[in-house]
Design a protein that fits this description.
With 424 residues, the protein is α+β, with helices and mostly antiparallel strands. It is built from twelve helices and 20 strands. Strands 14-13-10-6-5-18-19-20 form an eight-stranded antiparallel sheet. A four-stranded parallel sheet has the order 2-1-3-4, sandwiched between helices. A four-stranded antiparallel sheet has the order 9-15-16-17.
Length: 424
């Protein structure tokens, strides 16, 4: 059990790998999920995450979970499908499994995803098949994902270092050292390598809440990003709400959906985004690298899109449905965030999005609205500016060369300069 100490909670300590793994499992349960007695937990994880899954499971039962169920995925079997399956197999998804997961969430189960897949697993595979498989999966998983995007239950994502992922992040290191370096980065970014991780997360959440409160009190109409390759105005949805760090889910449980997290975020208006923006980090999506993205928005919709690598996959993503070429999230992260300061390109959105301000193509988080929207029809949500899509894909647009202003009633307020908050 992690015990609280009143002394410097950020002071680094020396722990063994097994101790840090156990701390990550405990933080995931106590801070990430805040599991309540009698609650079930559904975990999805790669096969190579077994050791971490066991730590999470142990701490979940200690917290009173009634049942922990884990669904494992395997990169090799995923790749085998793209190499050997018949063509019509890529329009199929296990709807029975998705329906079961949605039922579990409706009945109150908590959700944990452990990420760690090979970022370029599908490199060289047919982009059309990838797009078809993603579309089929998104449609099947829609009922479950709606529960998550509505923040109806407590959920959390953490990461597990895997050999294939580590090789991508640290290609110049021997395999064992690469894996150790990736674990070290995960532990540090997840704030478990300090004297008291739970107290550290409490202080970090307080800082994120204060930043979100400033933005909510300011009630900006829009944000303006400017810098090399970027001149973008992002209108904000009617009644938008800024959030960040720990939040109360619809079942009344306060949880941290992402570990790590450095962002505050809100819902942009789906029809009020105009201008051009370029990516500042590569996007790794479903095993495909998409780099040097540049897009132009008109009235909320992307009308031009290019990329130096993976452009065909990007365009297929944008064609997923009507809302895929619009954005459902805008998030602000200072360039000095710990993940950015580490200089590590994780090739994983959970980490890379917390090194940079970013936007997300597709589905909006309906929780990021001031006024209760329960009962509103899909059409009424669209009228409020809330985007709807099968996808939600974050990509990074912030750096130390990007400035940000808040716009309100024709006035401009400096918020970030060279990627850093103007107000401390």
């Amino acid at each position: 059990m992690i015990t609280a100490k009143e002394s410097n909670v950020s002071a680094p300590s020396t722990f063994s790998h097994e101790q840090l793994l156990d701390r990550l499992g405990e933080v995931a349960v106590r801070v990430g999920l805040n599991i309540t007695p009698g609650q079930q937990l559904l975990i999805t994880a790669p096969l190579t995450a077994v050791a971490l899954v066991r730590r999470v499971t142990e701490h979940a039962y200690k917290a009173g979970a009634s049942l922990v169920t884990t669904l494992y995925a395997d990169d090799e079997t995923t790749l085998a499908r793209f190499i050997h399956a018949p063509d019509d197999a890529f329009d199929v998804a296990p709807t029975w499994l998705a329906e079961g997961m949605a039922r579990a969430f409706r009945e109150g189960a908590a959700r944990m995803a452990i990420t760690g897949a090979n970022p370029t697993l599908l490199k060289g595979q047919d982009p059309e098949r990838i797009a078809r498989a993603n579309r089929a999966s998104s449609k099947a998983n829609r009922p479950a994902m709606e529960i998550i995007t509505q923040f109806a239950v407590n959920w959390n994502i953490i990461a597990c270092a895997t050999p294939a992922w580590a090789e991508q992040v640290f290609p110049d290191l021997p395999p064992e050292k690469a894996l150790a370096a990736l674990w070290d980065g995960i532990f540090k970014a997840s704030r478990v390598d300090v004297a008291d991780p739970v107290a550290e997360w409490k202080a970090h959440n307080a800082a994120l809440h204060a930043r979100a409160k400033f933005m909510n009190d300011s009630r900006f109409d829009a944000l303006h990003f400017s810098g090399p390759g970027t001149d973008l105005t992002v209108g904000l949805a009617d009644g938008h709400l800024w959030a960040g760090g720990s939040e109360k889910s619809g079942n009344g449980i306060v949880c941290n959906p992402n570990i790590p997290t450095e962002e505050i975020f809100t819902t942009p208006h789906r029809s009020k985004v105009n201008g051009r923006v370029g990516s500042t980090k590569p996007l790794f999506h479903q095993g495909t690298l998409i780099d040097d993205i540049s897009v132009r928005f008109e009235n909320g919709r992307i009308v031009e899109a290019t990329a130096s690598q993976g452009e065909d996959v990007l365009k297929r993503i944008l064609d997923t449905d009507e809302g895929a070429a619009r954005i459902g999230e805008v998030a602000l992260v200072p360039h000095s965030s710990p993940i950015s300061a580490s200089k590590i390109l994780y090739r994983n959105t959970l980490f890379d999005e917390n090194a940079s301000s970013h936007i997300a193509l597709g589905q909006a988080y309906t929780k990021c609205m001031v006024v209760d929207i329960e009962g509103l029809t899909p059409e009424e949500l669209l009228d409020r500016g809330v985007n709807d899509s099968l996808i939600h894909i974050d990509w990074m647009i912030g750096s130390d060369k990007i400035d940000l202003d808040g716009l309100k009633n024709g006035n401009r307020v400096p918020l970030m300069r060279a990627g850093e908050w103007v107000q401390a």
